[in-house]
Amino acid sequence: MAGGADGPAAPEGSGGTLSNLLREERRFPPPADLAAHANVTAAAYDEAAADGEAFWAAQAARLEWAEPWTQVLDWSNPPFARWFTGGRLNVAANCLDRHVRAGHGDRVAFHWEGEPGDTRTLSYAELKDEVCRAANALLALGVRAGDRVALYMPMIPETVVAMLACARIGAPHTVVFGGFSADALRGRVLDCDARVVVTADGGYRKGAASALKPAVDEALEQCPDVRSVLVVRRTGQDVGWTEGRDVWWHDLVAAQSAEHEAEAFDSEHPLYIMYTSGTTARPKGILHTTGGYLTQVAWTHWAVFDVKPQTDVYWTAADIGWVTGHSYIVYGPLANGVTSVLYEGTPDTPHQGRWWEIVEKYKVSILYCAPTAIRTFMKWGERIPGRFDLSSLRLLGSVGEPINPEAWIWYRRAIGADRCPVVDTWWQTETGAQMISPLPGVSTAKPGSALRALPGVSAEVVDDSGKPVPNGSGGYLVLTEPWPSMLRTIWGDEQRYVDTYWSRFPGWYFAGDGAKKDEDGDIWLLGRVDDVMNVSGHRISTTEVESALVSHPLVAEAAVVGAADETTGQGIVAFVILRADGEQAAAEAGGEDVARQLRAHVTREIGPIARPRQIMVVAELPKTRSGKIMRRLLRDIAENRALGDVTTLTDSSVMDAIRDRLPAGP
Ligand code: WTA
């Protein structure tokens, strides 16, 4: 939403709409022992400020290059960047071979935990062998460098193996989240013209085997150019079989040699395409390349999580089907030679303590997840993690959406025993790697703030005309310098790349997020600008109203949308999930009374301007594969429109469930 009566600045007279976010005034300096042994100190900011390219060159030198680069950054044709030009490297060799060669072959790469409780441990040496076999298998299927391979997989080790096998032979992968529909899969396969698909019969979710192969079969009915489907047997369920096209993984891959000489590819060789669920109907194929991407994911993983490869057990509790999984389950941790946990299933199967059982079992020391998960755990209650030994944890990370101070504090206290730093990391599919985040050994954390751009990254908050806003004001988040892991283009659509990201503020990358700078100049992310509401000419962040709602003791989770309103432009409509005692209160006093209480609460917290026009109590909220609430669909409900595209929902039945609980219309 560009422009508007009052521009992107905070509503007047409110002391900034930050008031609610800033109510939590506690500050958390780094623990002394962590700071004393931190991988990165404050000096990194100075080094990067003095010479950004030299800074990134030093980080790139952490990787193994078959040929050195001749130029750090070629920005002669903006916004098309080329990093480490002339350099050549192999991503899989950087993630595996060099660690094995350095004598770390026996180190565990993944502790994999299947949802039914089956497990598998893969050392770096074993993973390397498996990747080489899979690389040979892909070659046997005729895949060559540059060919695209689509993956539609559950969270099993073969997913990582297949990605690295693609990287090893220079075939860009596109991982399509296993919760996507056949339609969505087809669209992506066609858009990037993949000729080979890797999938599984199914995977385990919510205590049952859920099928994947039927969706592939359906999708491929209209993808005549796909010639091979490589199928992992995971669940053992019956699958349809197309002779001549379908091949079992255990037949083809197991028969291959574990020897494969990794070829070095150009630094700008495509590594993968990740489709993002956008606000428009057609998903965008975000293209990431080799040298710059690996440099920044490796460095940020090392710096932001302060990983010690010898001792840490690291867990990104996200799906590999979105960018967090790519950068911080696969490429970052493996480039750093770290031991990770990989979990197949849902957090409440077979019980609501499953994550914490896993933390206890593998002595996880670093956990990275999304605020939506944290709020779910809050809803389930602190007693559940309280039953497990979480003393191995030393650092907690958050990603994917603004984290409200209540959730931040709960995460630190209930999971982190009030001793683990919380790093709130802002980034996007497009940025490839973390961009704005505390450094755990340096930063004094403020609950709810991602603080400032990481060393080597330049972020600003600007107003409608592109002018940086003063401290204490809000606007649009932009990135003012190219960075190594930036998207290179939108696959097959350079113009859309230029238009979407580089045209709103020429020369700068427009992130699509609203942000504010507080009095110290620290950055608070306020959600997508398309989620910023405009009520009577005042801009109000959906995040802020949500934050107010979840600070009420009856509320577990809230999603707020701006619905068209004849009088005020937009009206605020809130969808809330109540905590167990809230449900009871609603049953006793009636839903209307709960709604009245919540409206009054928001009025108190932010002001009458933020008072929701309508509050709907629902059982579930529609979420994307990456756990983000799909406000677009909620807006459709609030405005009583036909629903938009739901293929990006993890569970499209949620929408029906919501509608069933609602009155006919607002
Ligand atoms: C949001 C996920 C606030 C933001 C890595 C961004 C965040 C979008 C944060 C990208 C955060 C991500 N605080 N908002 N720490 N991290 N976001 O592409 O709106 O799935 O633009 O990448 O998530 O989502 P994506």
Characterise this structure:
The chain is α/β, with parallel strands linked by helices and 666 residues long. The chain contains 21 helices and 30 strands. It has a seven-stranded mixed β-sheet with strand order 5-4-17-16-18-19-20, with helices on both faces. Helix 4 (91-104) runs antiparallel to helix 5 (124-140) and helix 18 packs across helix 19. The radius of gyration is 24 Å and the shape is globular. 5'-O-[(S)-ethoxy(hydroxy)phosphoryl]adenosine (WTA) binds at residues 276, 322-324, 399-402, 424-429, 450, 511-513, 525, 527-528, 626.
Concise description?
This protein has 666 residues and is α/β, with parallel strands linked by helices. 32% of the residues lie in helices and 23% in strands.
Task: Tell me the layout of helices and strands.
Blueprint: H1 32-36, H2 43-50, H3 52-60, E1 71-77, E2 80-85, E3 88-89, H4 91-104, E4 108-113, E5 119-123, H5 124-140, E6 149-152, H6 157-169, E7 173-175, H7 182-192, E8 196-200, E9 202-205, E10 208-211, H8 213-220, E11 228-232, E12 246-248, H9 249-252, E13 265-266, E14 270-276, E15 284-289, H10 291-304, E16 313-316, H11 323-335, E17 339-343, H12 354-362, E18 366-369, H13 371-380, H14 383-386, E19 395-399, H15 405-415, E20 422-425, E21 459-462, E22 474-479, E23 489-490, H16 494-502, E24 509-517, E25 523-528, E26 532-535, E27 538-541, H17 542-550, E28 555-565, E29 569-578, H18 580-589, H19 591-605, E30 614-617, H20 631-638, H21 653-661
Parallel strand pairs: 4-17, 6-7, 6-8, 8-11, 11-12, 16-17, 16-18, 18-19, 19-20, 29-30
Antiparallel strand pairs: 1-2, 3-13, 4-5, 9-10, 14-15, 15-23, 21-22, 22-24, 24-25, 26-27, 28-29
Helix pairs in contact: 2-3, 4-5, 4-6, 4-11, 5-6, 7-8, 10-11, 13-15, 18-19
Bound molecules: 5'-O-[(S)-ethoxy(hydroxy)phosphoryl]adenosine (WTA).
The site of 5'-O-[(S)-ethoxy(hydroxy)phosphoryl]adenosine has 22 residues, from helix 11, strand 20, strand 24 and strand 25.
Cofactor: Mg(2+)
Organism: Actinacidiphila polyblastidii
Pfam family, one: AMP-binding_C
